[in-house]
Amino acid sequence: MIKVIKRRYIAFRMKPRIKISKREIYHVLIREISTSINVKTGNGLYIWVIKFDAETGLGIIRCGHNYLDQILHSIQESRGILKELKFRTLGTSGSIKTLKRKFLSKEFK
């Protein structure tokens, strides 16, 4: 039997106009979340940074539904680099279209 991992999308906001790439955000998230959840680095988290706009500080993360609650909790309780970047979640959704409509401004497309 094959387990199906449902995708969930998280809208986030951080400091605007900071020079950081999607790849660097990904590595910071993996480091912070894996230490918080006590999971081997990235194993089974299915996290990916879909989109990030450095000017506005808005972005979208995709993750699996099985770790969604733990990921959100570890982001909110972070004390490391995510706290320095003022990384905050805006909301979650099952589709990018709904996430953009509910939580992200019209300029972020």
Structural commentary:
The protein has 109 residues and is an alpha+beta fold. Helices cover 34% and strands 24% of the residues. The protein has a single domain, classed as Ribonuclease P, Pop5 subunit (Alpha-Beta Plaits, 2-Layer Sandwich), CATH 3.30.70. It contains four helices and four strands. It starts with 6 loop residues before the first strand and ends in a 6-residue tail after the last helix. The mean pLDDT is 85.
Ordered list of secondary-structure elements with their pairings:
Layout: E1 7-13, H1 22-37, E2 48-53, E3 58-64, H2 68-76, H3 81-84, E4 88-93, H4 96-103
Brief overview, please?
The chain has 109 residues and is α+β, with helices and mostly antiparallel strands. The protein is built from four helices and four strands; from the N terminus they run βαββααβα.
Tell me, rounded to a whole number, the average pLDDT: 85
Radius of gyration in whole Å, from Cα? 13 Å
* Name of the CATH superfamily: Ribonuclease P, Pop5 subunit
CATH architecture: 2-Layer Sandwich
Number of strands: 4
**Total separate domains:** 1
Instruction: Give the strand content.
Output: 15-25%
- Strand ordering within the main sheet: 2-3-1-4
Helical content class: 25-40%
How far do the termini sit from each other? 38 Å
SSE string: EHEEHHEH
Shape descriptor: globular
Structural class: alpha+beta
Residue runs with pLDDT of under 50 for 5 or more positions: none
CATH topology: Alpha-Beta Plaits
| Major sheet summary line | 4 strands, antiparallel
